[in-house]
Amino acid sequence: MVFDFKENDEQQLVVRSVTEWCEKNLTAERVREMDDKGHPFPKDIVEGLGNLGYVLGTVPVEHDGPGIDWLTQGLIAEVIGYFDPTAATAAALMAVETGWGFTLDRHCSETVRDRYVKPAMKGEKFLGIATTEPGGGSDVSAFSSSAEKDGEEWVINGEKTFTSGTEECKRWGGGYWINVRTGPPPPGAPHRNMTAFFLPIDADGVEVQKPYRDAGRMAISTGGFIMNDVRLPDEYRLGEEGRGFYYTMEGFDNARIMIAASCVGVIQRILDIATPYIKEREVFGRPLAKYEAIQFELAEIYLEMEALKLMTRKTCWMQDIRYQEEGMPTKTARATTFSPTQIAKWISMIKWKGPSLALDAAKKAMLWFGAAGYTKDYLLEAAWRGVMSYVVGAEGGKNIQKLVVARELLGKEYIPYK
Amino acid sequence: MVFDFKENDEQQLVVRSVTEWCEKNLTAERVREMDDKGHPFPKDIVEGLGNLGYVLGTVPVEHDGPGIDWLTQGLIAEVIGYFDPTAATAAALMAVETGWGFTLDRHCSETVRDRYVKPAMKGEKFLGIATTEPGGGSDVSAFSSSAEKDGEEWVINGEKTFTSGTEECKRWGGGYWINVRTGPPPPGAPHRNMTAFFLPIDADGVEVQKPYRDAGRMAISTGGFIMNDVRLPDEYRLGEEGRGFYYTMEGFDNARIMIAASCVGVIQRILDIATPYIKEREVFGRPLAKYEAIQFELAEIYLEMEALKLMTRKTCWMQDIRYQEEGMPTKTARATTFSPTQIAKWISMIKWKGPSLALDAAKKAMLWFGAAGYTKDYLLEAAWRGVMSYVVGAEGGKNIQKLVVARELLGKEYIPYK
Amino acid sequence: MVFDFKENDEQQLVVRSVTEWCEKNLTAERVREMDDKGHPFPKDIVEGLGNLGYVLGTVPVEHDGPGIDWLTQGLIAEVIGYFDPTAATAAALMAVETGWGFTLDRHCSETVRDRYVKPAMKGEKFLGIATTEPGGGSDVSAFSSSAEKDGEEWVINGEKTFTSGTEECKRWGGGYWINVRTGPPPPGAPHRNMTAFFLPIDADGVEVQKPYRDAGRMAISTGGFIMNDVRLPDEYRLGEEGRGFYYTMEGFDNARIMIAASCVGVIQRILDIATPYIKEREVFGRPLAKYEAIQFELAEIYLEMEALKLMTRKTCWMQDIRYQEEGMPTKTARATTFSPTQIAKWISMIKWKGPSLALDAAKKAMLWFGAAGYTKDYLLEAAWRGVMSYVVGAEGGKNIQKLVVARELLGKEYIPYK
Amino acid sequence: MVFDFKENDEQQLVVRSVTEWCEKNLTAERVREMDDKGHPFPKDIVEGLGNLGYVLGTVPVEHDGPGIDWLTQGLIAEVIGYFDPTAATAAALMAVETGWGFTLDRHCSETVRDRYVKPAMKGEKFLGIATTEPGGGSDVSAFSSSAEKDGEEWVINGEKTFTSGTEECKRWGGGYWINVRTGPPPPGAPHRNMTAFFLPIDADGVEVQKPYRDAGRMAISTGGFIMNDVRLPDEYRLGEEGRGFYYTMEGFDNARIMIAASCVGVIQRILDIATPYIKEREVFGRPLAKYEAIQFELAEIYLEMEALKLMTRKTCWMQDIRYQEEGMPTKTARATTFSPTQIAKWISMIKWKGPSLALDAAKKAMLWFGAAGYTKDYLLEAAWRGVMSYVVGAEGGKNIQKLVVARELLGKEYIPYK
């Protein structure tokens, strides 16, 4: 039998270890406090998890990283999502720092790696992603930030918005993966002639904007910044010139996997909060759990959580095969078993299903609790507000994911709006 | 032709007048500020609307009330819901004050009317409802608050929770409709031997608890209070002894109608916020409104809002017929055209459909806006958080409404849990 | 009070009368037999209902028609849908014959009226609609049938498909409303330069094709025909030359109203079949009706049926106002209260909601019955198969309706595919 | 890495082989003909597949069976569902014959094995399941069929209904797994004191009833039979006396796995029928596949099919582990890795999700096709009618599955109706 659906011993060990850490350091009280107080994200948590090797865990050992695989990193993200169901910790440390940090490490120079990636692995500095521009989220063609070569340096101008962690980055140090135009887009190919860079937040000419006030996921800031004649040496360029779009897509892939995995954890947590409550709480002389309408909803959420879990793990497994085939730490070949677009299809499926499902689970559980579910006495409302950030769009909204899946199923020539 | 689906001239006049007032006094900026600042509810708004006769508008002229019908009051609630889509104003002034205030007026003594109902009509005092107890929301049998006759007075003990407006009531003066046990429940009939009273908030022995911290609808407080040997004269009794449950159900009916009507307004507002945005905002070179997935959702929300509007107006029309037939200001006969349980079926249908629909509309609109929809730059997120209070349970959760509808369709003997 | 939601005495009389007729002539056994045997549709039913004035009931008295309004005709369609929940009778006699027959009467010459409309009112001849062509259903631009003037006559060539009642028309005599090209379409306006005609089925050059084998709605045939140099005198032209598209849209409007109204009846019938069954049938020692999951579904179907009913009646009321304002029997003015596109929005909403809801109701009821619901022992499976014909597309599929609603809400410039 | 989501070489070989056979023998034309003609099921198909070892494939080699695992048998069921999307072949040969045949083989005497199981493996005789009685489907307590010991024989009386394959069984020979009462049920434990038997269809006293007329899945009959003093020797008893309920549950488990697996195939087939059609068919000048509403539905169906596939394969994998641990061909130990109730939870999840999803996929695809989707020109309508049989209840309706899942999540004490 080839099929196997079980964690191996090493994976189980990692899960136990990160669970124990979270039981101590990411308690319900702590999470409530983080949500109430709002950003900046608590430094001790990123450092604690970073020192255990769970932040940027997939950075290869050759680069002094923990070198775990995506399957194991996905299991870690499940646990993080479980303990902080507001999604703030998972968003900050798994999607942003791990998803993008790994991708940064894969494409950056030794200098950037030493100065930024390695400290970020220990939770000392913040690594983020800043693609969105005021003109558009998922629409690269609306991007107008640009970099021009001036001698050995690049001069960067433009604005980035809806960027996670700007306040944290300012305080801790660190910087952002940006993707900017380094040449005019060929007709009909707005994604060409873009180049990725690493932008230190404290570079001259970077002006961080006031953070947004959001509906949830309060423990991590969202803001933006303006780049005004920012000068970067060429070693801050990521990968080849003109291929920034493709590297950025790779970063999105890794970040989205982390989001889906953390949603598995969020849903499991919602079930674990709700189950004892509905078993105890009596209405009309019987526990809520004995009401068919409630227990059927519980069963539905559980079913779909298991579906999501399997799909997410399969996606991690595909991504691991991809990176093994491409070569690590440096890409030396092309993936053969699954093409990147095949994997992207799976990634879009889980990024689409995960947050929607978590939102729905939180909403339903709030209803079971009645008025109590609407109060901050339980984490349900914070989970509900928090995962909504993933549904509305963080790392690509729902409709974008559907377009990706449909494109893979039908072919590029059936993209609706061309 | 008998069927007619149009507002008459007088109704149109009222709608125009309340709209104009709200355009000046309940602007988007004001609503945002109210949501940010949180309770207590601004006094100028309740007084402004009260002085125009729109709060407790259905109190009959014989009792110095505005004497409008429920259809017109429903139109007012639509407008209020429109201008404050966080549902706070509608919850406070329409569901609680108007729905319960009218019912209070119908069953209270001249003393209570003069001291509390009349000032409340001007927005001077607060009138609320406090039925829920720690043991249960919709489950009367779990209630343990009680009143005992001691000479000419009643001595009341117990606790009420999840009560709207406790902070406002404390500040402005006023009090609560309560429903307490005045005799042991006969076997299998926990709703018997309960009596309704009006409880002034400043009565000796009332101890107001710290308000809850909620996920939304911030401008109105939710709290609770303990009643410790509170002594009330008999003229604070509402209606006949032992029939408190039935009067309370009547109050719920009127409050729920107001909720449904205000949801019509909330949804219309969401559409009015979203429509210009999706027409302007371009992604991939075309406005969001040209994306089929988005415009189909818009069309679906609109369709269901029109359905809700018709159902709500029909329900108001039924309730008006009921009160005409029962006699006003004093009940002198029984309704013949529609029985109270028939009307309750319709009320449960709109209380169930309205909030769910409004929540869904807010969620979908947030998705169209992407990350921007998640910020406090638009009222969408406040609407989303606010109407959730109605969905989780204010004035009776979704499943309770379903049970009511099913009971009417199938008969009492098919209540599932007996 | 202007709002009124009640049938008047005359309408109640009509409902009682058609109900009594159906109780005798459209029994469950008869409907089962009609579905089993398949087309042609039984002549006695069309004649019986025709002689009572219920088929083409809205044809004005000036044209020797019954002259009832659309509201009353809608009530008749509800009853027909109730008694034949397979939708065959409603499709044949209400949507096709009444919806299109009325529109035909409004635009045809005295000759066509005498030869075809008047006999059809008595159930003697069949009147139908044949717009769809092999190239497309809702897409007029794909139509290639054409008429050319040759002296006093028109010579018609082309093919029509998915046409209701071809076998009935062949047997009973009668004919079809067709819409064909009488000039090249101006660029970007494929709906211009089309002209409507009445095509007698026995005209030389008409070749009726073999009927389709469908999944349901068996009692009425669906087929097609080829027109091969068919010559028609000019008095078979309907309305003005070049305006056939607009008249055809008017016909769709009237047919769709009938479909929505009949769906109200179908759903009511499904509830009436299911309710006694679930009350009696015991599983695990309690009637199915006591299971929350089942009774909540029942309540949901009922709620939405009432919503559909109100929306359908409002639409009929709007259409009646339209025709009153336009003038009857001959159009002499334009509607002022509601524009045709405003009414079309409502018509699309009910055509979209009605069949989907009926299909869902049938499906759910089948589930409550378990394996018994899957058999021909009950009409549920026939209703399920039958109403699906409306969902897939008869008189315009679901997505077309959504596009219409969205176009009205957003404006023509936001049609997605232009 | 332990996780693995890929078929091994042997499994791929089996899939290829059964696919090739079906491409020749279970063509779309053949399936259409089978559905049109109705039962009895064609003998050549059961014999063809039987001779290849794909019917009752999991019967162990020690019993002269093919001895494949459930994972591989699940892959076969996927292929069968793909080629006959009306579900008739999968229902007959996979769910009924394989699911129940394997379980029969596991618990029957050598005599029954030689006379019935071995011929059934070759497609010579029919093996079925007959549990349902007129009093109830999933409710064992309503069963009144009984067996009484009379010397060396059992005398059986009672009636079984909604039994698959009665006509086939009559023609081909074979018989049914029945489960009857052999003692009074202890209070509150109606499932005790039942014993399973194998009933040859030609036993004296068995009277086969007229088959039902169903909405779909026409190629296999559904009927019932009366047992009138049927005498069976003790070697027709299955397993221990009084434990029939438990063996029957095991049979349901295996049958349900086959149903879920075949639904994966049905959905894949629907996508494969629909995809080229929507790519080619143009409406308003663009292929249907370019319409967002359509391609998003396609993507959703695909996503959920992949979820179902993973869940089904995981369930097979669990079942294989169970049987390995229990011992084969004879049970010698208890499963340790997964308890039977844990596996039952997964089985109920896939039995619930699979048919619902397939029904929804068929419905949506019919809508994309419009009127053409409603005709017998495509297999979509036959798939839609066919899979409905699984949704309404074959092998346990949807609500039963939900109850099972909820019971596992909450504990037996939370079964709603106790």
Any overview of this molecule?
Chain A is globular and about 80 Å long. In chain A, a hairpin with a 2-residue loop joins β9 and β10 (286-287). Helix content of chain A is 52%, strand content 14%. The model of chain A has no long low-confidence stretch (mean pLDDT 94). With 418 residues, chain A is α+β, with helices and mostly antiparallel strands. In chain A, α8 runs antiparallel to α9 and α9 runs antiparallel to α10 (340-369). Chain A has helices spanning 9-25, 28-37, 43-51, 70-83, 88-107, 110-121, 166-172, 244-280, 292-326, 340-369, 380-392, 398-410, and strands at 126-130, 146-150, 153-164, 174-181, 194-200, 206-208, 222-233, 237-238, 282-283, 286-287. A 4-stranded mixed sheet of chain A has the order 1-4-5-8, with helices on both faces. Chains in contact: A-B, A-C, A-D, B-C, B-D, C-D. At the B-C interface, α8, α9, α10 and α12 of B face α8, α9, α10 and α12 of C.
Task: List descriptors.
homotetramer, 418 residues, alpha+beta, four-stranded mixed beta sheet, four-stranded antiparallel beta sheet, 12 helices, 10 strands, globular
